[in-house]
Design goal:
heterodimer; A: Glutaredoxin; 2 domains; 7 helices; B: 394 residues; Rossmann fold; de novo design (two linked rop proteins); 3 domains; five-stranded mixed β-sheet; globular; binds flavin mononucleotide; binds iron/sulfur cluster; binds FE2/S2 (inorganic) cluster
């Protein structure tokens, strides 16, 4: 990690910890915030959080790995999570899986080389009456069709380029 | 049996804040007696009487108490809490505030599943409006001594955190691993303080009961299962969605309402629930018959019930917290067995052993997840022997 990136991360973590409070009960909101901002929770982040809360990094790591939405090692900017549970399966989740894999050129469980996209299965998203359902980060998509998959991915790509451009400025 | 329909949509039988105003005109004890009298039982699955729970939390001696709204809705096939959170957030917060008043809590926490993060912004806005309207904060609606705040905390994609003690662990910044019970949260809950954990629907109904009275509530349902139930219906039917129906409705009646009369089976209660075959469609949805937190999944003639059982088994392998052996080991063995069954590669004696392993899990697992993980497997094998046994070897 470049040192200016590391500094930026430290700064962010300090302000996040200050926002939620330096106590153990704030650990989940802190991890969720770091994840949202940096797309994953790095070893450095774990160490910094542990130091600020005065607990062992293993404790932080143990919590971060318990929850499937917190990712110590999965860096994709857009995490696509397709529901694999029964009602979505009955509504054609398998087809959506294939289209996603073909569009992105990766399999489920993988991340694209540029760290833009990852594909994962998740369990019931509470959209069973409108399946197949998937999440892109926090946003939910329902009644997903093969055509819609293409639109979803294009939407992400355009977001990514605008995000990237604004950073460059 | 008719659908419970109100002229202007769901919950239009009650006026905004009618329940809260009524509650604040009564003593805490009176509020709890009304809830007890209504027979309201927990809508999150376990069906514990709400009045009893509130009474235990209210009588625990501690200055600091909490009430938690469980919005971790993760049972496969359940989405009625999503509808409450999205369409009736004021009613939900009203119920949570009534509960806070009843047990003497100054703080309420909404534990919202990570999958529903997209609802957070709207919910925070509603809370802000409630603060402005003196429905939260100090001296709520002018009631001296009643100060109450609500905080929203997010889950992060773990089904087990819907179990109330795992939920509390998660709030305390720990891995979401269930605790031994007793002690129960009503005595030793969040940060060691008395805590009532209630499902979203239970809280919403408490507002209705205060507004309209226990007798009105009891005029729906059966004597042992009073009131109505929100059912989340999905699968092979033409009209999936959330329905409010009185307890005691039969599966057959329900299937007619949702246009799913060609069903050969219905899974009631999600992955943790039971598979009910056609011959039993006259059974009733009620705590005393087929009990459910609200999930109803309809299976048409063409569905392979073994695939259904495998899908549920995979769910439990992934969601088991791994803390105790019967569940950690049992969920994996059941999945293996089902896959072998599908390949036509499981002897009947092995199957018998698996069924008995299932019974052991029901008895020996530490929490409800492991205790109910074998239900779907056992009920599918028992009800569809011709379909699941003797597959061609592949
Ligand atoms: C594995 C597991 C998952 C659960 N998930 C939920 C849930 O998502 N929502 C819920 O209200 N209760 C859930 N429960 C039940 C809770 O432990 C608890 O009984 C309930 O929140 C109490 O509220 P109630 O009495 O209003 O139903 C779950 C239980 C188990 C064992
Ligand atoms: S039964 Fe399963 S989920 Fe519950 S404590 Fe044991 S391992 Fe964890
Ligand atoms: S089964 Fe996919 S959202 Fe519920």
């Amino acid at each position: 990690m470049f040192s200016y990136e590391k500094e930026k991360l430290s700064e962010d973590i300090v302000s996040i910890v200050n926002k939620y409070g330096k106590n153990r009960t704030s650990l989940l909101p802190i991890l969720q915030s770091v994840q949202e901002k940096h797309h994953f929770i790095s070893e450095t982040a774990i160490q910094e959080i542990a130091d600020l809360l005065g607990i062992h990094p293993v404790e932080v790591y143990g919590v971060a790995t318990f929850y499937s939405f917190l990712n110590p090692d999965q860096k994709a900017v857009f995490k696509i999570r397709l529901c694999q549970t029964i009602s979505c399966e009955m509504q054609g989740k398998e087809k959506i899986k294939n289209v996603l894999e073909n569009e992105l050129g990766i399999k489920f469980g993988e991340t694209t080389k540029d760290n833009r996209f990852s594909l994962e299965f998740v369990n019931c998203l509470g959209m069973c009456d409108q399946g197949p359902a998937l999440l892109v980060n926090q946003k939910v998509y329902t009644k997903v069709t093969p055509e819609k998959v293409k639109e979803i991915i294009d939407e992400c790509k355009s977001q990514f380029s605008s995000h990237f451009l604004s950073k460059e400025e | 049996m008719p659908i419970v329909e109100y002229k202007n949509g769901m919950f239009s039988d009650i006026k905004p804040e009618e329940g809260l105003k009524k509650a604040l005109s009564l003593s805490r004890g009176e509020v709890i007696s009304i809830i007890t009298d209504s027979g309201l039982k927990g809508r999150g699955g376990a069906g514990f009487p709400c009045g009893t729970k509130w009474n235990l939390a209210a009588s625990a001696s501690d200055e600091e108490k909490y009430i938690i709204c469980n919005a971790d809705e993760g049972e496969p096939g359940t989405f009625k809490d999503r509808v409450l959170l999205k369409e009736y957030p004021n009613l939900l917060f009203e119920g949570l505030t009534i509960g806070g008043y009843a047990i003497g809590a100054k703080k309420g926490i909404l534990y919202l599943r990570g999958e529903y993060t997209y609802l957070l912004k709207g919910l925070l806005q509603v809370l802000e409006e409630r603060r402005k309207n003196n429905l939260l904060g100090e001296k709520i609606l002018g009631k001296d001594g009643f100060n109450f705040e609500i905080e929203i905390r997010m889950g992060s994609g773990a089904y087990i955190c819907g179990e109330e003690t795992a939920l509390i662990e998660s709030l305390e910044g720990q891995r979401g691993e269930p605790r031994n019970r007793p002690p129960f949260p009503v005595n030793t809950g969040f940060m060691g303080h008395p805590t009532s954990v209630n499902n979203c629907e239970t809280l919403v109904l408490s507002a209705r009961i205060l507004a309209k009275g226990a007798d009105y509530f009891k005029s729906f349902g059966t004597p042992k299962s009073t009131g109505t139930k929100l059912l989340s219906v999905s699968g092979d039917c033409k009209k999936p969605g959330v329905y409010e129906l009185p307890f005691g409705v039969t599966i057959k009646e329900l299937l007619k309402i949702v246009d799913g009369e060609d069903a050969k089976a219905v899974q009631i209660g999600g992955a943790s629930g039971f598979c009910i075959p056609k011959k039993d469609f006259s059974r009733k949805i009620a705590y005393e018959d087929v009990s459910t937190g609200g999930s109803v999944i309809v299976f048409g003639e063409k569905r392979d019930m073994l695939d259904v059982a495998i899908n549920f088994a995979e769910f439990f392998v992934e969601e088991s917290c791994g803390q105790c052996t019967p569940c950690r080991f049992g969920t994996v063995e059941i999945l293996k067995g089902l896959k072998n069954l599908k390949k036509g590669d499981l002897s009947l004696s092995m199957l018998k052993e698996l069924l008995s392993l299932g019974k052991t899990m029901q008895l020996a697992s530490k929490c409800g997840l492991g205790q109910s993980a074998p239900n779907a497997f056992i009920s599918i094998v028992e009800n569809f022997p011709d379909e699941v046994l003797g597959r061609e070897e592949v």
